[in-house]
Design brief:
Blueprint lengths: L1 H18 L4 H20 L15 H10 L4 H50 L28 H10 L4 E7 L4 H13 L5 E5 L2 H9 L3 E4 L4 H9 L2 H17 L3 E5 L3 E3 L13 E5 L4 H5 L1 E6 L8 E6 L3 E8 L3 H16 L4 H10 L13 E3 L5 E3 H7 L13 E3 L6 H12 L16
Parallel strand pairs: 1-2, 1-4, 2-3, 6-10, 11-12
Antiparallel strand pairs: 4-9, 5-12, 6-9, 7-8
Helix pairs in contact: 1-3, 2-3, 3-4, 6-14, 9-11, 11-12
Bound molecules: 2-acetamido-2-deoxy-beta-D-glucopyranose (NAG) (2 copies).
The site of one 2-acetamido-2-deoxy-beta-D-glucopyranose has 2 residues, from loops.
């Protein structure tokens, strides 16, 4: 295309030269001028016309420049314009090629990444079995224990953990009363693998003098000031930073807040098939385990019903983590967001666990299991439902978490009176919610 246009232009240029023919001297003078021009153009292709185009060094462009010297000013301008148009097209074409190559590279890297992960997870590439027999992995391999991250903690865990599993509780002096109550239930339920992470000296002292396993971290300014002076939510956010080392050391952690009463040994009631096994804030089958919530938008007529996936959040005050890469990634992602923004740790914990990958965002791929909401009972279930139901009242939960009520201590004591001492009316005086 370029070549064809150029030929046509050359022809025009030579016709122009023919039309100014009458006087031979003038012809010779013009001829010499043209010759000189051609020679200069040949020797200094960039000397006369400057362009920013990356293509200015290509042969056909220098040729075009040569031809433009044969012509009158507006003709030359037209030729140049045409050349520039051509170059712009060429540029756009190259840019498109670059984009396509970048996309190919990105896909190749994605493929490599996925393939590597699959190789690590499975070891071999399986064939799909017959209908009804295939089952994907939810139990990820555990990480290789790395004692070097914290030899002192490794030694403590070796003594405290049972089958490489333990309960971990963070506490500072503000929650001492609740901790004492919890420890009394731990002892009654005969749970040996229970460890307190003391956030200040008072709690460390309390544990030592009461035969409770305790771990105090090495001084760390940022963590320590939150640990000593932080309120409920701030301390709650700390656990995501502190738990990492436990998992790196190869231990499964059952994280527990202090406002929890233990009535049975929770390790007898875990499934251990998922990265994260958590108690729920839900209060019945639907809210605890998930349901299809149909949203009605009348204006859409035929398509008025929009189906939405709903589940009540997992409770970030009581969850079991297996020492796997997704679990550690979860801790990192939550800790990172809590460090940068003032957010509620439970909301962040759930967003990271549940939001899928989407444009500009890569979701976490952790397997999840919701604990039985009667066995691992929140205080809404207890005070709204269970205490009013003759059958449910007889059932003994594994734990009860006073997460829905601000008057935690009196309700914890009432739970103990009812479930441990058998005082039948111990729960009756409390309202369903806080009032
Ligand atoms: C302290 O606890 C350990 C096990 O947790 C137990 O063997 C020991 O008897 C306890 N000691 C006291 C003084 O209670
Ligand atoms: C809740 O689910 C369990 C089984 O998961 C079932 O036995 C029970 O009947 C269900 N309860 C209600 C109220 O649907």
């Amino acid at each position: 295309m370029m070549a064809g246009r150029r030929d046509r232009l050359m022809k025009n240029a030579s016709n122009n030269n023919m039309s100014i023919n009458p006087r031979s001297r003038i012809i010779i003078a013009i001829g010499i001028g043209i010759l000189m021009g051609c020679i200069f153009a040949f020797l200094y292709p960039h000397g006369f016309f400057h362009t920013n185009s990356p293509l200015s060094t290509t042969d056909h462009f220098s040729n075009s420049q040569t031809s433009t010297l044969d012509c009158e000013p507006d003709e030359r301008a037209n030729i140049l314009k045409a050349d520039i148009m051509g170059l712009k097209e060429k540029n756009a074409e190259l840019r498109k090629q670059v984009r396509e190559l970048q996309e190919k590279l990105r896909l190749a890297e994605q493929g490599k990444d996925t393939a590597q992960k699959q190789f690590l997870a499975l070891g071999a590439q399986p064939k799909a079995g017959p209908f009804g027999t295939v089952k994907s992995l939810r139990t990820n391999p555990t990480v290789a224990p790395d004692e070097s991250v914290n030899p002192r903690l490794a030694k403590i865990l070796q003594e405290v953990a049972v089958r490489k599993e333990l309960i971990v509780v963070l506490a500072n002096a503000y929650v001492r009363e609740m901790l004492e109550l919890q420890v009394s239930t731990i002892k009654k339920a005969d749970i040996p693998n229970y460890l307190v992470v003391a956030l200040d000296e008072e709690i460390a002292e309390y544990c030592k003098s009461n035969n409770v396993s305790v771990y105090m971290r090495d001084p760390d300014k940022g963590v320590d000031s939150i640990g000593r002076n932080g309120g409920n939510h701030a301390v709650s956010g700390l656990k995501f930073r502190i738990l990492r080392e436990f998992l790196q050391l190869g231990y499964s952690v059952l994280l527990s807040d202090v406002d929890i009463i233990f009535l049975q040994n929770p390790f007898d009631h875990l499934y251990r098939d998922s990265d994260v096994e958590s108690m729920t804030d839900g209060h019945n089958n639907m809210t605890a385990y998930g349901y299809n919530d149909v949203f009605d938008e009348l204006a859409m007529g035929w398509a008025r019903y929009a189906h939405t996936m709903r589940i009540w959040v997992y409770n970030s005050g009581f969850f079991f983590l297996r020492p796997t890469i997704p679990s550690i990634e979860l801790l990192d992602r939550v800790a990172d967001r809590l460090a940068k923004q003032n957010l509620w740790d439970q909301a962040v914990f759930n967003e990271e666990l549940f939001f899928p990958s989407h444009p500009e965002y890569e979701g976490l791929h952790a397997s999840r299991r919701t604990m039985d909401f009667y066995s691992f009972m929140n205080s809404k279930v207890l005070f709204k439902t269970v205490r009013k139901d003759a059958n449910l009242k007889k059932f003994k939960p594994v734990i009860i978490h006073i997460n829905y009520h601000p008057d935690k201590l009196p309700r914890m004591k009432a739970v103990l009176e009812y479930y441990v001492d058998g005082k039948q009316d111990a729960l009756d005086s409390f309202p369903d919610g806080s009032q």
